[in-house]
C-alpha cells in the first residue's frame, strides 16, 4: 500500500469516527486535499516531467495545475476535482462564522478524490489534447 492509499483509508476512518465534528471534518479534509494535490502533481509530472522552477520564479499555482488537468483526464472528472479542491480548501480553514463540513459533504469529496486516484484515462499517451 502506498502513502496516497493510506491517506485515503485514514480519511475514511476519520469520517467513520465519532467525536467533535469540527475536529474530524477538518482532519479528513486535510487528508483528502493532500491526496488530491499529490495525485494531480503526479499526473502532470507523468505527462510533462518534473516541475522545474528557475531562481526567482514561483512554482505553478494549484489553480493553473487544475486547468492543465482538463487536458489530461475526462473533463467531467476534472471539473469535479476542481470543485472538490475548492471545497476542501474552504473546509480546512476554520472561520467562526462557518459550520464545519458535514460527513456527507466529505464523503462526496472522498469519492471524487478516489475517482482521480483510480483514474485509468490519465495523461493521453499520444500527446494529443
What general outline do the C-alpha atoms trace? globular
Helix content: 55-70%
The CATH topology corresponds to Four Helix Bundle (Hemerythrin (Met), subunit A)
Count of domains:
1
Can you summarize the main beta sheet? none
**Backbone CA Rg:** 16 Å
Number of separate helices: 5
Give the termini separation: 32 Å
Class by helix and strand content?
mainly alpha
Uncertain spans? 123-129
- Strand residue content: under 5%
Can you tell me the CATH class? Answer: Mainly Alpha
Explain this structure to me?
The structure is a single chain. It is built from five helices and no strands. It has a single domain (about 5-115), classed as Four Helix Bundle (Hemerythrin (Met), subunit A) (Up-down Bundle). The protein is globular, with a radius of gyration of 16 Å. Helix content is about 65%, strand content about 0%. The chain is mainly α. The longest helix is centred in the first third of the chain and has 28 residues, at about 20-50.
Amino acid at each position: 500500500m502506498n502513502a496516497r492509499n493510506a491517506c485515503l483509508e485514514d480519511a475514511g476512518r476519520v469520517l467513520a469516527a465519532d467525536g467533535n465534528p469540527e475536529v474530524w471534518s477538518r482532519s479528513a479534509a486535510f487528508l483528502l486535499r493532500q491526496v488530491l494535490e499529490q495525485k494531480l502533481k503526479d499526473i502532470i509530472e507523468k505527462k510533462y516531467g518534473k516541475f522545474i522552477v528557475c531562481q526567482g520564479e514561483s512554482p505553478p499555482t494549484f489553480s493553473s495545475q487544475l486547468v492543465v488537468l482538463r487536458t489530461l483526464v475526462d473533463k467531467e472528472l476534472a471539473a469535479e476535482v476542481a470543485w472538490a479542491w475548492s471545497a476542501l480548501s474552504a473546509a480546512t480553514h476554520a472561520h467562526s462564522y462557518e459550520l464545519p463540513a458535514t460527513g456527507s459533504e466529505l464523503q462526496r469529496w472522498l469519492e471524487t478524490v478516489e475517482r482521480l486516484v483510480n483514474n485509468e484515462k490519465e495523461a493521453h499517451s499520444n500527446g494529443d489534447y
